[in-house]
């Protein structure tokens, strides 16, 4: 394995500037995924569920709350958005999966708009069949492996994909991108590799090798929207707060990730949506776009 770049850059939708990501545990990630020495711990422990469960339990202990002030300060979190004050959390994990004030994440309410399902750095592709690379040249999506079903994957072969990558510094609740009838999430078991670009540049297959949940939102005019909630290293659990099946609204909370980086994959059938121009523009250059949950990620055709 060759060395990987330390620098992860993304476009900030609101500031209009390129930013360098402050990566939680960057030296560790470079060792594991960018050095031959990292292969053994990756195979023995890091990608294994027991390791993430152990770390998740550690972050749920009362003594873990001592990490909260330094984390807020180092990553410059805006505490005015928090629904509860920082000193109210019983553990770091409780802080990590915190709720925000409703006004901190308004939902785009224009007719026929789609909302980003999570805070994060996003990549969007209008037609997966015509997408020759994701993150680095030559890496393509294996939809049947992602769905673990050729039949379920087929409607999305020429469809659109949005990858929403959540960093540890982000708001970690995920939401529905569209109105419709949502199905209960189905577990697809797997490993727990990191979903940081340091790892994804090496192997995009992490998305269909990792533990994930699949849910569908049936819509009247926009087909069947697929949503994957992808776990990753140190994500102790994926928890669901929406009681399904039932009708859901755009921007309604679906659930949350416990400590760690995670991803939400949203797939649309062919010809059903038009993704936002800035998302497509930067994604075509391999650059992620930072945007918040509830902001417009596209529109219905």
Helicity level, as a percent range?
10-25%
**Largest sheet: number of strands, sense, barrel closure:** 11 strands, mixed
The run of helices and strands is EEHHHHHEEEEHHEEEEHHEEEEEEEHEE
**Shape verdict:** globular
Intertermini distance: 43 Å
How big is the Rg? 18 Å
Strand content: 25-35%
Number of domains: 1
Number of helices: 10
Features:
single chain, 301 residues, alpha+beta, eleven-stranded mixed β-sheet, three-stranded antiparallel β-sheet, 10 helices, globular, disordered N terminus
Q: How would you describe this structure to a colleague?
A:
With 301 residues, this protein is an alpha+beta fold. It has one domain (1-301). Helix content is 21%, strand content 27%. The chain has ten helices and 19 strands. It has helices at 26-34, 39-46, 49-58, 68-74, 92-96, 143-147, 150-153, 197-200, 206-209, 277-284, and strands at residues 9-12, 17-20, 113-115, 120-125, 133-134, 136-137, 160-166, 173-175, 180-182, 186-188, 212-218, 224-230, 238-240, 246-248, 253-257, 262-268, 273-275, 288-291, 296-300. Strands 1, 2, 4, 7, 9, 10, 11, 12, 14, 16 and 18 form an eleven-stranded mixed beta sheet that branches. The radius of gyration is 18 Å and the shape is globular.
Helices, strands, pairings?
Elements: E1 9-12, E2 17-20, H1 26-34, H2 39-46, H3 49-58, H4 68-74, H5 92-96, E3 113-115, E4 120-125, E5 133-134, E6 136-137, H6 143-147, H7 150-153, E7 160-166, E8 173-175, E9 180-182, E10 186-188, H8 197-200, H9 206-209, E11 212-218, E12 224-230, E13 238-240, E14 246-248, E15 253-257, E16 262-268, E17 273-275, H10 277-284, E18 288-291, E19 296-300
Parallel strand pairs: 1-18
Antiparallel strand pairs: 1-2, 3-19, 4-7, 4-18, 5-6, 7-16, 8-15, 9-11, 9-14, 10-11, 11-12, 12-16, 13-15, 17-19
